[in-house]
Amino acid sequence: MECKIRPWKMEDAAELASAINNKNVLDNLRDGIPYPYTEDDARFFINGMLKADKNNIIAFAITADDRVVGSIGVFRQDNIHFCTAEMGYYIAEPFWGKGLGTSAVKQTCQYVFDNTDIIRIFAEPFALNIASCRILEKSGFECEGTLRSNAIKNGCVLDMKMYSLIKSNHR
Length: 171
Known about the structure:
171 residues; alpha+beta; Aminopeptidase; 7-stranded mixed beta sheet; 5 helices; Acyl_CoA_acyltransferase; GNAT_dom; acyltransferase activity, transferring groups other than amino-acyl groups; N-acetyltransferase domain-containing protein
């Protein structure tokens, strides 16, 4: 199954809502995403991504077989960290374990390093999210350490991992 990233389109709303309206997916993401997730929620998100400053937010639909199966975004930091960006992503559960996340991360990093002045991309998955940690490792990210007791998700105190990819080390 081939993975592609592409800009969001408003007609992606139904597939986006289907991809993220899943507690197993949401349990691995930060809070703030509605559940259940509706097509109206998806349209609101897509509209925001289409209107976003492309220098600060780079967001793509992750597709397989011309169908939206996830989302990936890179968010520029500010102040002294203006050449650093945080990456976040998810894949719909039926597509887990098929290499789509690794492919999307690699494509997005290549795009960011080729088209912006960003020199460092980082991601902070929950430490217990082994699959996401493996995606980052297979994409060339290095684990910089564990952020102990760094988050509360679903009432549980969780560790997070800090991963980064540096442009000068990127192949």
